[in-house]
Amino acid sequence: MTPMSQTRAKFEARIPRLRLIDDTMAQIFFDNNIPCVETVLRTILDKPDLVVIDITLVQTQKVVHNYGGREVRLDVYAEDSTGKRYNIELQRTKAGASLRRARLNLSLMDARALEKGEDPDKLPDTFIIFITEEDFFKKGVTLWEAPRTYWLNGKVTDKRADDGSHIVYVNAEYADTDTSAIGKLMKDFMTADPAQIQNELLRERMTYFKLTEEGREKMCQVMEDLLKDEKRTYVQGLLKAGASKEVIMAGLHLTEEEFEELATPLAS
Q: Where do the DSSP E strands lie in 52-204?
């Protein structure tokens, strides 16, 4: 078996185990798919009439550039018919779901929401939604919104500081016991078997990627692209650290053509 066929066999073996909570599956599952994004947002926010518009704004792994500073790679980015903006992040580790990460995402999304000189009061409402495998903040509930409240004389009041920003956490830890719509959605996110997914729309899409030849081919392509991205990051890191082209090629068993491709930064 050639190295290429061995790699493909490893990709094929992974597909049955992938769940919607896994980044590899989520990346292709939601990409340019308005109905599935609508389903998730409607359920989490309890807004059955929420309508996602403009398919160009529904892109997985959308990069938000920050000129002169750090860029952020969003998992799912969407805008609805009222102008509200949404960033859904699939995170399995606590580090990736921190409040400061949410603050960074919010700030960069806000910075790009207005034209130069435009009134800040025109900033759209923005939702950062972290979907996590565990209840990292130990709130004991499936859905929790980070509080943004007024303080009065050093004490927190029950009045919301309504600046239009929302940081929402949805965790799958209680999916087996939470029978609410959100609990059922989280159970679907944790399910690898398409036949066990309760939501019809999500079940059909998962079935396509796992049980059809065309869908599995696309899944393998995504995994191949992710592997190439990891290699690109590694190669460029080695170059910055001073490693020579010859050493990198020998260590990673790369052809000159492969090295040149991986050494070239992606266009912004």
A: 59-64, 72-79, 85-91, 126-132, 143-145, 149-152, 155-160, 165-171
Q: How far apart are CA 107 and CA 114, in angstroms?
A: 12
pLDDT tens, per residue, the chain with 268 residues: 555 567 788 899 999 999 999 988 998 999 889 999 999 999 999 999 999 986 555 555 555 544 444 455 677 888 999 999 999 999 887 778 889 989 988 888 888 787 777 888 889 999 999 999 999 899 999 999 998 887 888 887 778 878 899 999 999 999 999 999 999 999 999 999 999 999 999 999 999 999 999 999 999 998 888 888 888 888 999 999 999 999 999 988 889 998 998 998 875 5
Token readout for 100 is 């400061």
Instruction: Please report the sign of the dihedral spanned by the C-alpha atoms of residue 55, residue 56, residue 62, residue 68.
Output: negative
For residues 39 and 49, the answer to whether their CB atoms sit within 8 Å is no
What are the strands of the beta sheet with 165-171, ordered from one edge? Answer: 59-64, 72-79, 85-91, 126-132, 165-171, 143-145
Closest CA to 72 of 115, 103, 28, 26: 103
Q: How far is it, in rounded angstroms, from Cα 139 to Cα 137?
A: 6
- Give first-to-last CA distance, the chain, whole Å: 37
Domain boundaries, the chain: 1-13+213-268, 19-191
Longest Cα–Cα distance of the chain, Å, equals 72
- In 3D space, the residue among 16, 12, 20 whose CA is nearest the CA of residue 186 turns out to be 20
Query: How far apart are the C-alpha atoms of 25 and 45, rounded to whole Å?
Result: 23
CB 116 within 8 A of CB 71: no
- CB distance 211 to 197 below 8 Å: no
